[in-house]
């Protein structure tokens, strides 16, 4: 239960700060506004903070794709995987609800955006389905390569949070204009479900942001699983 609570809090923080930066500061004007770099940094710093805050408890996955990659790599049980997934999705949902309540209090109104991901006409750079799918698979794969690499035995674990956070910043810098950047099914599900009343299109597209990150993560997990087996055979 400590691990589940940690994953809930961590995923809540990621969605609250990351998506919050996108829809609150990102919608602002003048000195209060931030750009793509600011939004990307908010997501990255959230990971850094949570890595050191809850990492010793749960490993700070705060992402169903990360948990799947860790599972495929042979580093966690199926039971823990399910518990992590439930906690992560709940954390993202609650964070999206809190953002909804905050944004609903804006005197001039708000367009219903909660940081939902999407592709096609009217979304970000208007990239098509193929572009969105390729980006999410590749970006999640590279993100998991970093995570599984810096957390493996023998790696300097004290720097893991920084490496993972900076990698997530880089992923967002590339991906925000393509899909808004997911690489995290929970991060996509929370805003899509809570914002379905004002932005139903995001819920219709959310399948890609579940499937693509899981594919990318599974490939990375297999890579590290095979690598560990080869290392064991050689020894």
TrEMBL record:
Cellular component per GO, a single term: plasma membrane
Transmembrane spans: 12-30, 36-60, 81-103, 129-150, 162-183, 203-224
Membrane topology per record: Multi-pass membrane protein
One Pfam family from the record: MIP
Broad class of where this protein is predominantly found: membrane
GO molecular function, one term: water channel activity
Alphabetical UniProt keywords: Cell membrane, Membrane, Transmembrane, Transmembrane helix, Transport
Family classification: Belongs to the MIP/aquaporin (TC 1.A.8) family.
Name of the protein this chain belongs to: MIP family channel protein
Source organism: Chelatococcus asaccharovorans
């Amino acid at each position: 239960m400590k691990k589940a609570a940690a994953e809930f809090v961590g995923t809540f923080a990621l969605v609250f700060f990351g998506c919050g930066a996108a829809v609150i500061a990102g919608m602002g004007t003048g000195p209060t506004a931030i750009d793509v770099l600011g939004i990307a940094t908010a997501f990255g710093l959230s990971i850094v903070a949570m890595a050191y805050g809850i990492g010793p408890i749960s490993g700070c996955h705060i992402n169903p794709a990360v948990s799947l990659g860790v599972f495929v790599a042979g580093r966690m049980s199926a039971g823990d995987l399910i518990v992590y997934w439930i906690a992560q999705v709940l954390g993202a949902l609650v964070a999206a609800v809190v953002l909804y309540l905050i944004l609903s209090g804006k005197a001039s109104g708000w367009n219903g955006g909660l940081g939902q991901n999407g592709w096609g006409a009217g979304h970000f750079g208007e990239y098509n389905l193929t572009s969105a799918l390729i980006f999410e698979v590749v970006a999640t794969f590279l993100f998991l390569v970093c995570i599984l690499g810096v957390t493996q035995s023998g790696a300097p674990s004290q720097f893991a949070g920084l490496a993972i956070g900076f990698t997530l910043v880089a992923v967002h810098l590339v991906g925000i204009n393509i899909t808004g950047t997911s690489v995290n099914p929970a991060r996509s599900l929370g805003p899509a479900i809570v914002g379905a009343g004002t932005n139903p299109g995001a819920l219709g597209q959310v399948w890609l942001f579940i499937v693509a990150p899981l594919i990318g993560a599974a490939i990375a997990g297999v890579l590290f699983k095979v690598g560990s087996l080869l290392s064991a055979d050689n020894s």
